[in-house]
Every structure is written in structure tokens, then in C-alpha cells.
Amino acid sequence: MNNIFQELANLDRLIHEPARLAVLTALASCQKTDFLFLQRLTGLSAGNLSVHLSKLEDAGLVKSEKKIVAKRTQTHVNITEEGRDSIARYWEKIETLRNDAENWKLDE
Amino acid sequence: MNNIFQELANLDRLIHEPARLAVLTALASCQKTDFLFLQRLTGLSAGNLSVHLSKLEDAGLVKSEKKIVAKRTQTHVNITEEGRDSIARYWEKIETLRNDAENWKLDE
DNA sequence: AAGTGAGCTTTATGATATAAAGTGTTTTGT
DNA sequence: ACAAAACACTTTATATCATAAAGCTCACTT
After folding, report:
1. How many other CB atoms are found less than 10 A from the CB of residue B26?
2. Is the pLDDT reported for residue B1 higher than 50?
3. Strand partners, B65
4. Which residue is closest to B52 within chain A, CA to CA?
5. Is A3 in the B-facing interface, judged by CB distances under 8 Å?
6. Which of A6, A19, B10, B65 is deepest in the core (most CB within 10 A)?
7. Starting from the edge strand earliest in sequence, which strands make up the sheet with A62-69, in order?
């Protein structure tokens, strides 16, 4: 019922959105990192990154905690188990869909 | 200067957007097809598909032509050379970025 | 003690995806 | 033969959402 192209059209935007895809993919590599590092890595503006992180946190994909380091506040961002699973499944799905699309022949 | 994650964050939304990604990927397989078939294949509403096709056409990635078949109007959609190149490059880039991200180690 | 900069968060704005309504033609029912 | 429904879309309206701009708090400087 849900074919390749319908799955493409219905990709989860929470993860698929470029900025959040970058953040989640980075976090999957880093495990844990701080706000400013993530900002440098992704090139996002602070406000932008902040909003995207909130959305990811609301969805339970990341968890951030504030610390005081050298008398300055620092936000550390952790990817959750759910976040790690979600981004891994996303990338697998993308790869599968790409392969399926390449081998697809008109036969419904 | 532009690392993996910045490239992810800056993916071209014209192609990356799920509905258009589905349409372009389908057209890359089909070569040419009609509006209603594309609609069935992607599961998009008519209005939705119409708007997305317009954007792709404005960008020169597809070209549609109207015909009268069995006394009914039928819109045929062709992918252009540019469209074919763009979607191929998109998928290659995605694959590359995924691989690069997987092998990425913190070293700037 | 006023000013500055760091490290964010919140609000405002502008873009855009989708849903709803509309258009023109053809077919069907009576 | 005429109204009504069905096709095959397109156009407009709305609601979501990404990003930019402004704001906030605390520390440090002068």
C-alpha cells in the first residue's frame, strides 16, 4: 500500500529538515557536545540552533543540560537512545529508498 | 570551510522537500508520465502535486505538456536533462554525506 | 555603576506546504 | 435536451515552520 514514492513523500520532517538532520547526524557521531561547538560545526545561527534543539528535545530525541563552566553557562546536548535509533533508521530508510527507486520498474 | 554538517544543513530545499523528492525520483525512473499516474504513485493530492510541479518547472527541472486524450485533458510531465542531473547529484551527495558522517572524527 | 560581551532564548517575520475552493470540459441521468 | 455529477486539473487561502531580529541574564571591565 505504501510504495517507495509515497514513503519518500511522507518522510518524517522532524528529522528530514536539513538543520535538524545536520544536528542529529553530528550528535550521533559526537555522542555529546556543547551548544557552541554544535553551532560552529553546523554553521547555524544561535537562535536557529536553539529553536531546532527545542523541537528535538520536545520529541525526546535529544536532552540538554546546563552547566557552569569557568563561570559561564554552557549547554551540553546529549542524543537520547530514541534519538540515536531515529537517526540511524532515517539513514537506513533513505538508503533503502534510493536503492529501491533505482531498481524500480513499473509494475505497481 | 564547508564541512559535512554544514552541507547537510544547507541541502537544496527545492529537491530535498519530501513531495518533490518523490516526484523527481519517480520521474527519473519513469522518464515521462502523466499527472494522474504521478498522483497515484506519490499519493499526493492534485492541488499539492500541481503546486510542486509548478515549482519544479519554474526551476527548469521538469517540463509539462497538455494533450487531449479521449476528449479529456491530460498533463504529461517530462524530466529535463537538468532535472535528471540534479536528482542524480542529490542522491550521490546524500550517500557521500552519510558515509562521511559515519567515518567522521573530531579533527575539524 | 554603567557599559560590554558571552551564551543563549523568545518573539516576529517571511516563506512555503497543504487544504479548500474554483474553472472548464465532458459525461450521465431523466 | 438540460441539469447535475465527474474529470482533470489550477488558483487562492490558511496554517505551519524556518530563520532573523531582538531580548535576557550573568560575568567582567573601566
Report:
1. 24
2. no
3. B76
4. A9
5. yes
6. A19
7. A32-34, A72-79, A62-69
